Amino acid sequence: MVGEGATLPLQTDTVLLPERVGELTGLDQFGVGGELLAAFLAAFIVGNIMLAMTGVAGPWAKRKITAAFTDRIAVNRLGPAGLLIIVADSVRLLSKELIIPEDADRPAYDLAPIVIASSALLGFAVIPMGSGIHLADPEVGLAFVFAVAGIASIGLVMAGYASANKYSMLGGLRAVAQNVAYEIPLVVTGMSVVIFAGTLQMSAIVEAQAQTLVSLGGLDIPAWYALVNPFAFVLFLVANFAEVGRNPFDTPEAPTEIVAGYQTEYSSVYFVLIYLGEFIHIFLGGAIIATIFLGGPAGPVLPGIVWFIIKIWAVFFLTQWLRSAIPRVRIDQLIEIGWKGLLVLSFANLVITAVIVGLIA
Amino acid sequence: MNDWIAIGALALVGLLIPLGMMAVSYLLRPSVPETSKRATYESGEIPTGGTRIRFNIQYYMVALLFLVFDIETVLLFPWAVVYLDAVESDAVSLLEILGPMLLFVAILMVGLAWAWRTGAVQWARTPRQATSGSDRQ
């Protein structure tokens, strides 16, 4: 089992991206100012990788995947496989007129899209993406990423309340009820991984998963926590789908009931930011799943970053699959699934995991 | 290098990207003010009443429950981090490590059972829904 033999180091000494950037550009010779600039450059690289992957490729992939499920072709006119539609779309969306409802609560209405978009991006700071692309590695990594992902709820409530629209109001309420209901199963299930790894540090969690679980005919199966504890993996997946508001838990923006929920009154660049924030959140959820359950950037032959992207996209593909395949739950069902089902199951998982680890180790 | 400098840098980048997009949009977008364009959207109807509507008490109940359980997860995290080391060290018995946490979770589960029984996690029905025998639970 995990944790056998060598005890895991609490502080790993991997070289993080800001230091690499500092060395490459020679900025590390300029003291604190150079360090700050190197950190900023590294953050800029990470931010733009995620933006390119989520905001740019995400919506295109979403259209293509949904089309494949419903036997259509979707975008195919601009460029190969319609890829250039992304450029056209971004120009189109940014150049739309911004219509602000007359009753809107101004500062909050303007701040909400920024809160939603930037909080999601901040979570990627502690995610090890492989090939040395890892911005920061604090000891509280996992707690940090849960905390940052939770900030988006505030943005959703701000958007819902400040729009002065009944649909937005209901959407905002539903969003926060859903986020608080599924936040606890998510965190508690994440905690069962911490029991295996004995640390919150992301790089150490990834390292712990590099051990061999079993050898099948000379093929080493790594101790990815999805294989060590598949029950926790399934729980975490379900709670994650609810947390990012995807099917079957897309009740906060149920188009057949409350138009578009909290984003009903948003147009132009504000809509783009909220939409982008949602996509970054899906990918952040995928990144957390990949890191704590699927061995992070680990994988044979290909470089780490490629494996990491493959794993994130696998989770994204699953969300789009569910979107096409599973009907939405009602708000009352949503509350009951969260509080009566997932919460109890996640605590059961935590206790059973603790007992088993205690008996084996 | 300090990790939190890098995280702060990403927070800055995370703010600059939305602000940059807003700036680009400000330069690109037209502005055609018209009367009634800015009216609150209510599926094409003229909006009736205010927005601060009465909503289901359930949202408040689950928010209260959340506070309890969220604080509880914060208290469990330090325990989860030291658990593996404590189990492997042989300095303390398994009962000493596991027992307090099991008791703590058990107390919370009693709380949840009580909330369950009093209907705090059951979607509240209006008196009319309750008497008309609708299938909404």
Largest sheet of chain A: 2 strands, antiparallel
Classify the secondary structure makeup of chain B into a structural class: mainly alpha
Query: Average pLDDT of chain B, to the nearest integer?
Result: 80
Protein chains sharing the most extensive interface: A-B, 96 and 72 residues
Class from secondary-structure proportions of chain A:
mainly alpha
Strand content of chain B: under 5%
Rg over alpha carbons of chain B = 26 Å
Strand content of chain A: under 5%
How many beta-strand elements of chain A? 2
* Tally of DSSP β-strands of chain B: 0
Helix content of chain B: 55-70%
Quaternary structure classification: heterodimer
Order of H and E elements of chain A: HHHHHHHEEHHHHHH
Q: Residue ranges of chain B: pLDDT <50 for 5 or more in a row?
A: none
**H and E string of chain B:** HHHH
Give the overall shape of chain B: flat
What's the number of helices of chain B? Answer: 4
| Strand order within the widest beta sheet of chain A | 1-2
The coarse silhouette of chain A is globular
Mean pLDDT of chain A: 82
Kindly describe this structure.
The complex is a heterodimer of chains A (361) and B (137). Chain A is mostly helical and 361 residues long. Chain A has helices at residues 17-25, 31-69, 85-94, 106-122, 141-162, 166-197, 202-208, 225-228, 230-243, 255-258, 268-293, 304-325, 331-360; strands at 212-216, 219-222. Chain A has one domain (95-360). Chain A contains 13 helices and 2 strands. A two-stranded antiparallel sheet of chain A has the order 1-2. In chain A, a hairpin with a 2-residue loop joins strand 1 and strand 2. In chain A, helix 1 (17-25) crosses helix 2 and helix 2 crosses helix 11. Chain B has 137 residues and is mainly α. Chain B has a domain at 54-127. Chain B is flat. The mean pLDDT of chain B is 80. The chains are: A mainly alpha (361), B mainly alpha (137). Chains A and B meet through helix 1, helix 2, helix 4, helix 6 and helix 11 of A and helix 1, helix 2 and helix 3 of B.
